[in-house]
Structure formats: C-alpha cells, structure tokens
Design brief:
The chain is mainly β and 122 residues long. It has strands at residues 2-7, 10-12, 18-26, 30-39, 46-52, 58-59, 67-72, 77-82, 91-100, 108-112, 116-120. It is built from no helices and eleven strands. The strands form two sheets. Strands 2, 4, 5, 6, 9, 10 and 11 form a seven-stranded mixed beta sheet that branches.
Length: 122
C-alpha cells in the first residue's frame, strides 16, 4: 500500500505565508505526478497545483503568482509554498499522487492524503 502524509496547515493572517509538505511512502516504484487539491467549506474539491515528472507545473488561475509547487523526487515529497494568502484560500488541502507500485505491472494508482486544514483569517 501507499500512504501520503501531509503537514504544514494551520491558521494564518491574510497576506501571510504557509508551506505544505506531503511525503509518500510504501510500495512505490515511481510517481508520475503529484498535486495539491483543496475543498473550501461547502464546495467541491478543486485542483490547486500539479507537477508531473519532467513536466512544468500547472496551477489554478486563482493561485497563479502566489503559490508554487515543487517536488523532491528522491524522497517522494511534494511541497506547496503559499504566499499572499487570502481568506478565500481557506479550505482543507489534500495531497494526491499517481503511483506505480510494482515493476511487474504498468498500472498506476491514485492515492490521497488525509487532508490538512488551512484557515486564512485576521
């Protein structure tokens, strides 16, 4: 199995910064993509940022220029640096990874972290 563990959430004032981290562990041969999603209160889960192996990162329009996703491939970890936070960034943030688990198969599986709460409020 594969586990994703997120860290770095909390309460921050508008204009502040936070950095999220998500470490993947378990039966991992390779990870083709990792990303961050969020679910604001009363709304559906939405993509925040995503990064593929060897490809450029993609961002939701609402976070472009404020958030930056990065990845440590050696440690199967993805980060989300969030700057200039706004109250509308308040949400539960989830990490996501697309994982190949065995050398004997080419299938990839999608895993999710448990979520970390971010509240942007004065």
């Amino acid at each position: 199995q594969v586990q994703l563990v997120e860290s770095g959430g909390g309460l921050v004032q508008p204009g502040g910064s936070l950095r999220l981290a998500c470490a993947a562990s378990g039966s991992i041969v390779s990870i083709s993509a990792m990303g961050w999603y969020r679910q604001p209160p009363g709304n559906q889960r939405e993509l925040v940022a995503r990064i593929t192996t060897g490809g450029p990162p993609t961002y939701a329009n609402s976070v472009k220029g404020r958030f930056a996703i990065s990845r440590d491939n050696a440690n199967n970890t993805v980060y989300l640096q969030m700057n200039s936070l706004k109250p509308e960034d308040t949400a539960v943030y989830y990490c996501n990874a697309q994982v190949r688990r065995r050398w004997s198969e080419v299938n990839e599986y999608v895993y999710w972290g448990q979520g970390t709460h971010i509240t942007v409020s004065s």
